[in-house]
Amino acid sequence: MTIAIGSDHNGVTLKEALLQGVLKGLNVRDFGVFSSESVDYPDVAFAVARAVASGEYERGILICGTGIGMAIAANKVKGIRAAPCSDVYSAKMSRRDNDANILCLGGRVVGPGLAAEIVAVWLNEPFAGGRHARRLEKIRTQEESCHDE
What we know:
Blueprint: E1 2-7, H1 12-20, E2 27-30, H2 41-53, E3 59-64, H3 68-74, E4 82-84, H4 88-96, E5 102-106, H5 112-124, H6 131-148
Parallel strand pairs: 1-2, 1-3, 3-5, 4-5
Helix pairs in contact: 2-3, 4-5
């Protein structure tokens, strides 16, 4: 699996912990940032989301202060289903029922231990398909109609 990861200044410490822990040895590209100097999170969110939407990367992980801003920005990119998760159950269900392709975490919300658990579950949980595929198709149809206007 190929993974794109990125953070803003509020998520850089958690991103580094994940890269040195649960993500170590996996095929991961770090889209930045690399310091705690203030940046605009949408720039990183769009870069990672575009890389995932294009198929260059199978999944993405975005980290800001809460995970909410990154999710809002990433979800503006066609084909992205970004889910902000701060617990293991939500992460599992975001994959199983929603086929989320980007996980958003909050560097001010979850610590490195819990974040590692969330990432591990999220990376390993398959999409259930079935009735959930029908629902995702409705989302795709709506997304297409919005981009056609």
